[in-house]
Design brief:
Order of helices and strands: HH
Helix content: over 70%
Shape: elongated
Strand content: under 5%
Amino acid sequence: MPIGIVIIAIVAVAAGSISQLLKIWLNRPGRAVLPQTDLQEIRDGLGQLQQAVDAIAVEVERLSEGQRFTTKLLSEQARKIASAPPVDEHLPMQ
């Protein structure tokens, strides 16, 4: 039998055994479990975090709208200046 197949078989058996041992260890009866009050505090904190992220997203969108508006005004003003006839600086002002 080729050595590669033997190595693959050994790795497969070892991985399967380790996964079964891990399942048994995680499902042991004396394992520490978070109390429901702690889980509720975590859920509440995640809810507050989600609200904060949503508020930040709204503010970022508002800022980007302002930026787009300012950019539009500046580009329109630049077009007006570019299309205006040149002023002769040597003529006296009236």
